[in-house]
Amino acid sequence: MISWPLFKYNMRQNRTLWMIILAILAMYLLIIMTMFDPNMVDSLERMLELLPEGLVKAMGFESFGTTLLTFTANYIYGFLVFLFPMIYSVMVNHRLVAQHIDKGSMSYLLATPNTRRKIVLTQAAFSIFGVAALFVAATVIALVAAALMFPGAMEAGKFILLNLYTIAVYMAVGGIGFLAGCLLEERLSLAVGAGLPVMFLFFQMLGNAGDKIAWLGKFSLYYLFDFDRLFSPEQSVLPQVLALLAIALVTYGLAVLSFEKRDMHV
Q1: What angle do the packed helices 116-149 and 156-183 form, to 10 degrees?
Q2: Rg of the chain on CA atoms, in Å
Q3: Of 101, 138, 241, 123, the residue nearest 175 (C-alpha)
């Protein structure tokens, strides 16, 4: 059970940031789609050869793909998807609990008839809802644009699965930030909630950059995001998805428990 007035307040407080991140994500998706031309893929691949190999690998741009789906996936979901949605996730999860405690507004929430559990479950529900809604909206925009620009070219089912996979990634990332907000003071909360996702991205880039340090990529949460397996008939992403959902379940669960037991003067 959640508090709908609090949930609606979260929507009002975060809608501007949500719309900005969606606009940026949609813009990149549309730009990439307009660049797609099966006859130009070889030319783009040759352009990559002019760039430093380590940089290309670190950014996840080793291949553009030969279909609209793989072209979009390699360009957006290889690197850019870890940037802007991560900003949204970090800022929102910091606002949901840690900022309320620091500003003293949590005292007013706790003084209402709502229990601690109801308050924290509401915030956790919004944490998941916000990022899920972001990718659902981006998926709809991309599919509509693909239908208009390249009728029948986008493999809609696989593209939807790709975005569901991405939502699972951000449920895990969001769980880490939400746990930090429920467990730590505001400054430490922001440092951990932002620092860990950035560190994961850094390790991912280093792991991609060269074979000698590829092992570093395994220390990244994003190592579990391997969309090439999603497109392969011989492989499955189910183990990775289950691992991401398990991380989300544990982190959000611990966040709820820590908030209920946290000593807060009201």
Answers
A1: 150
A2: 20
A3: 123
Given this model, what pLDDT does residue 65 score? 67
Cβ atoms of 220 and 207 closer than 8 Å: yes
% of residues, the chain, pLDDT over 70: 88
How far is C-alpha 248 from the chain's CA centre? 12
User: What was the pLDDT predicted at 217?
Assistant: 80
Q: Check residues 165 and 204 and name the one with the higher pLDDT.
A: 165
Single pTM value for the model: 0.90
Asked if pLDDT for residue 58 goes beyond 60, the answer is: no
Looking from the CA of 181 toward its CB, the CA atoms found within 13 Å total 29
Alpha-carbon span 93 to 98, nearest angstrom: 8
In angstroms, the CA 150 to CA 250 distance is 42
Residue 134's nearest CA partner among 12, 22, 15 is: 22
Q: How far, in Å, are 69, 101, 162, 216, 233 from residue 157 at the CA level?
A: 10, 42, 9, 33, 14
DSSP conformation class of 62: S
In whole angstroms, give the CA distance from residue 118 to residue 124. Answer: 10
**Are 247 and 119 spatial neighbours (Cβ–Cβ below 8 Å)?**
no
Q: Helix, strand, or coil here: 60? A: coil
Please write the tens of the pLDDT for every residue from 142-180.
999 999 999 998 999 999 999 999 999 999 999 999 999
Q: So what's the pLDDT on residue 82?
A: 87
Q: What residue spans define the domains of the chain? A: 4-261
State the burial class of residue 190 (Cβ atoms within 10 Å of its Cβ: 0-12, 13-18, 19+): buried
In this structure, which amino acid lies at residue 4? W
Per-residue confidence (pLDDT) for residue 57, from 0 to 100: 54
